[in-house]
Amino acid sequence: MSIVAKRLYLVLFAITLIILTGSSGYYLLFEGKYSLIDCVYMTVISLTTVGYGEVIEITGNIPAQIFTMILITFGAGVILYGISNLTAVFIEGELSGLLRAKQMVKRIRRISGHFIVCGGGETGLPVMHELMQNQERVVLIENDPEKIDRCCRLLGDLLFIRGDAMEDQNLISGGLERAAGLFICLPSDKDALYVTITARMWNPRIRIISRVMEEPLGSKLINAGANRVVSPSAIGALRMASEMIRPAAVDFLDRMLRSSQGHLRINELTISSSSNMAGTPILDSGLKERFELLLLAFRKPGETIEFNPQPKDTLEPGMTLIVMGDVEKCARARKIF
């Protein structure tokens, strides 16, 4: 439950409680002489100070007069508290934020096959940028409003859920049961472990990639249900070594990722069982001529990757092709293959 909803419920509860207390007090003081609706009416006009006159004969009844003074004193305070809270909700824009959050959830309900990113920090932001560069649909789950604003400012129209990824409801609101993949970019390995277990429970088919800060916990994340774990420190060490011994190759990959001449990427295509391309030789598939994609390798189901494919090799159902080319052309090829 959001903070705004909690504040609204608290105000309604306080007002309801003071009205019930006042009505019950009048009813007991006069031993049922007046109906319950008269007692409620007397309580409301006393709290609101409208001055319609006494529905119940309080004048001359000292206990009733004392009760009325206490009721007005404390009840008026509750009413003022409620009004100030409601005013704050409207003035501070919290209500509009709540409405925007509900609208965001409705938009997320209309998508499927998307990717959820838990954490919009230094790891989550580049992950989302790369996904959106590849024309993938992304949903961010982040509790820090400043990180959400930064991600929206840098990435544009971003779907997000403001809340803790540790809470099941936020994962479900992010479309966990319909998502194709989950990226866990949380600062704590323990939190990542919990989210992994929860996600695997709700969606056994989802692919989970988690960041891990301490190498020994990587195996625990795998056992908990993560498909792969990535250690930023290990990746950084490999990058430093590669910069030293193979600088030209690293420069090639950097230029490919940051090229201003289109979005060039190494990507993968999977041959579906219903594809017309199944049984077609690579030479006749049109990968190079039609889509301008360079085939680097392929992997058959249950086998290792084979590099440098031959033009005469045949495309088979379930085969995954590793290609390099423009993102948009790769997306078009994926629909056909």
Note down, in words, how this protein is organized.
The structure is a single chain. The protein is an alpha/beta fold and 337 residues long. It folds into 3 domains: 3-91, Helix Hairpins (Orthogonal Bundle); 111-236, NAD(P)-binding Rossmann-like Domain (Rossmann fold); 262-336, Regulator of K+ conductance, C-terminal domain (Alpha-Beta Plaits, 2-Layer Sandwich), CATH 3.30.70. 50% of the residues lie in helices and 14% in strands. It is built from 12 helices and 10 strands. The chain has helices at residues 3-29, 36-48, 62-91, 94-109, 124-133, 145-155, 168-173, 189-202, 218-224, 232-245, 247-258, 327-336; strands at residues 115-118, 138-142, 159-162, 181-184, 207-211, 228-230, 264-270, 294-299, 305-307, 320-326. The strands form 2 sheets. The chain has a 6-stranded parallel beta sheet, with helices on both faces. Strand 2, helix 6 (145-155) and strand 3 (159-162) form a beta-alpha-beta unit. Helix 2 (36-48) crosses helix 3. It is elongated, with a radius of gyration of 31 Å. The chain starts with a helix and ends with a helix. The relative contact order is 0.07.
